[in-house]
Amino acid sequence: MNNALTNKSAITNDCLIELGTEELPPKNLKSLSEDFAKLVSQALNDVGLPAASIEVYATPRRLGILMRNMQTQQADQVVEKRGPALQAAFDKEGNPSKAAQGFARGCGVEVTDLQQRETDKGAWLYFEKTEIGSSLAQILPEVVATAIHKLPIAKKMRWGDQAFEFVRPVKWLVMMIGSSVVEGEVLGVRSGNQSQGHRFHAPGPMTFSNASDYVACLANEGKVVASFDERKRSIREQIEQSAANLGGVAHIEEALLNEVTGLVEFPVAVCGTFDAEFLSIPVEALVMTMQDNQKYFALFDQQGALLPNFITISNIDSKQPEMVAKGNERVIRPRFADARFFFEQDQKQPLSQRSELLDKVVFQNKLGSVGDKSRRIAKLAVSIAKQMGADEVQVERAAQLCKCDLMTEMVGEFPKLQGLMGRYYAEFDHEPKAVSDAVEQHYWPKFSGDQLPSNDVAQCVALADRLDSLVGIFGIGQKPSGVKDPFALRRAALSVVRILIEKDLPLNLMPLINKAFEALSDKFEAGSVADDVSDYIFDRLRAYYQEQGIGFDIVDAVISTKPEILNDCDQRVQAVNQFQKNDAALALAAANKRIANILKKQGVDKGLTKSSVTINERLFEATAEKQLFQQLVGLQGKVDSLFVEGEYLQGLNELASLRPVVDQFFDEVMVMVEDPAVKANRLALLSRLLSCFRQVADFSKIQS
Amino acid sequence: MNDTLTPNTVVTDLGTFQGLIQTLQSYWAEQGCVVMQPLDMEVGAGTFHPATFLRAIGPEPWRAAYVQPSRRPTDGRYGENPNRLQHYFQFQVLLKPSPDNFQELYLGSLERLGFDTLVHDVRFVEDNWESPTLGAWGLGWEIWLNGMEVSQFTYFQQVGGLECRPVSGEITYGIERLAMYMQGVDSIYDLVWSRSEQGEITYGDIYHQNEVEQSTYNFELADTDALFHWFDVCETECQKLIEKKLALPGYEQVMKASHAFNLLDARHAISVTERQRFILRVRTLSRGVAQCYYESREALAFPLMKNSLLPKATSDATAMEVDSE
């Protein structure tokens, strides 16, 4: 048992830790610093050394933690242990027994040092000692070393002839409490009060006189903005100000802003210009070059047109900022010149002419070329178009063109622009709008939460492309396992789910899968591929609904009744989810479970259908079963037609009125009676009730 | 020595390509580098030079700097693109073990070239390097000079499938880019290579015809059947040489196989799936050679340990471990 004594020394002070490194990777800089601070402050808190507040700092060359008003001394602890009962501890002469001696030895003292205490439960031998608390200075080095060791780092490295590993080489370590240094060593560097300022503006060592001066000292002497968030704010302000000066609006993506913040210690925005004639290149290609390759911010005018300017964030307050601007302009010019050359080259030939080249590109060894895939997509997409009533000619054309841009120079140079460039070139070739849009949109959704193909032509091609990949890759035995999903089939399946549900397409999935297989039937045996693909797509529903806050049990309850049309499935899931709010829902779910168990034991759950169950009214004995039957029969016609119309929630609400008679049935009626005819009849009644619910979902799977 | 010998008074003209090379060579010679000459074989990068790839293996300390002509057949543009060539130059520095002031030494070289780091925005931007054919990877940065990548900076972690102990630090300068910046020209071909009373010679004077003709060969004429055969021959030779414990000639076969692969690639003779297989074949050879080289140095008791600053015991403990992959 440990008892904290009263705080004899509740002294607090500011505590600073700064790990100096070579330039850290920018994208994870913020999370790395936060993890570090959390590990250190939590470990200290756990040993009774809390801080009033914790400030986290991060620049490319440092991870800083400033713990304000930190407890600097652990409280002393009284440790006590109970030994043997007094009766067993001494003999009649008062000599200590073996038990007493053993206990004393265990505590490292003589028996005479032990206490005797009377308690409610008798008299005992006790050992008590006071453990003196450690100081923060004693504990800190170990805590910091452990925290660094525990940091989640994807790729660590070694340097020089050191055995240590970290994100990048470690250069210095500051550990201070108030104005004094805490001695220690981490990753090969000894701690001190010396840091370094900005690499160019303040080279050489810089000394902190007090932990609390950290931020001011770095700012004034070091020319370093230590706080990630403050730098980020400053960068955003500078960008917006610069953009306003140029009469434009900056396009600021959060990820890029974070990355740039992680690349500089002293941010200074610099504006550059490029030749306006480059604006003939698709905006997306220009913006991508600026953002991805150069980490520039692009500017648009008030009407949303790209301006021939960019903003870069430099890491110095240059003596000649125009040199920085000029240098950056020199970099972007050849890149844009390349892009324009490719764009112009590509337009010398209609997009459709590239379809032949697709035969030379392997989609997958066993599944043939991208050309083969395009032809399969066209066939499947047209059959989908027939069912949806989409323009078959346009669908076929879009499918033939959809992969052609892979053979263009632009997509060769900017792979991320696949689809988009296809749309540009299709428009240039005067293809119908639905077709050129579909060339771009058949890749949608490109990522989780992305927009869906907007027109029906694009939807047909998008579905056909995904289904062909799913069936093909499953067919050659390479379906995703664990985290391995090289063909991104998880996303493909989720795309099918989203398009069918959110675009409200009442298509029966299995025939589509079979149609996709037909075109691939010369490549592999049918086996269970179609069922596997169907199951895989339905399995995506769990994740899909989880995002909407709908539980796995509801999804499973619906899927287990084998719905074939995804958007019908969706209506049921939504209805069951709504129905859960009905008071009767829980009770009915419990009743469903009970019935399912009874039927399972009797082996009558298989092949459960309404027609296979005949109920003989004359065999009813109890009022409760008669009432249940009558009410069920009374409702059934109405409920069935509601379900057929897809009015699932309304149907379920009707069924909810059965609750009292169902409850009564289970209160008063015994199902497993001697008389086989009566028993069979009752089982039949229960099956009919169950099957009525199962038109929507297997409610026995709903968790209470 | 002759007391009356006047000091060498060649003025390095930083306005020329050769002046840039001379400056880097003398700077790195001052840092204790052996200034080596280019390898007399076709390679895709300075890393292939045995002074980097092989010397990075094992415990022996080593510092070297050299220019390496580099060939990348797919980058050929028939001399029509001002920024892309199938044959260009890298200035390569290897410091083993990587010193504490590695970054500062690099920045010192930029200053020597005349770049004021309070005028120009110099940044270390994360860039991790991996060479699948060499079975090598490392972590480091691209160096940006006002947004232009002018160098790569890498701490080797593994080479030829072997853990690097100690770690070598590698710097690769893209010297055409640096020179274009320094000379303020927009085309590599306009770079002044040398300037003297004999007149000016440009990069284009020396290499433009080469780019046109080599591009034609690489893209149109290279005999793919012969190259496929050559690749097989190199592979067999290499395996034979590894068995005979001849790491250095064995390594030359790796470079030859690698260049044959690059030429086949430029001829679009290798499909996407085959590509991976060829890369794996070269990697297997690289690993064999690396292991063989390590053993041969070990058999010689690691001769360059005489220059090691490490206490003997430590260097024994840092012996290479074979990658278990």
- Structural class by secondary-structure content of chain A: alpha+beta
| Share in helix of chain A | 40-55%
Integer average pLDDT of chain A = 92
Biggest sheet character of chain A = 7 strands, mixed
End-to-end separation of chain A in angstroms reads: 41 Å
Give the low-pLDDT segments of chain A: 1-8
Number of helices of chain A: 25
- Structural class by helix and strand composition of chain B: alpha+beta
Q: Percent of residues of chain B in beta strands?
A: 15-25%
How many helical elements of chain B?
9
Q: Please, how many domains of chain A?
A: 5
CATH class of the largest domain in chain A: Mainly Alpha
Shape field of chain B = globular
The Rg value of chain A, from CA coordinates, equals: 37 Å
Alpha-carbon Rg of chain B, integer:
21 Å
Largest sheet of chain B: 9 strands, mixed
Beta strands of chain A, count:
19
Overall 3D shape of chain A: flat
The percent range for strand residues of chain A is 5-15%
Report the helical percentage of chain B. Answer: 40-55%
User: From the 3D coordinates, which CATH architecture of the largest domain in chain A would you assign?
Assistant: Orthogonal Bundle
Q: What structural keywords apply?
A:
heterodimer; A: 704 residues; alpha+beta; Alpha-Beta Plaits; seven-stranded mixed β-sheet; four-stranded antiparallel β-sheet; 25 helices; 19 strands; 15% strand; disordered N terminus; B: 325 residues; nine-stranded mixed β-sheet; two-stranded antiparallel ribbon; 11 strands; 40% helix
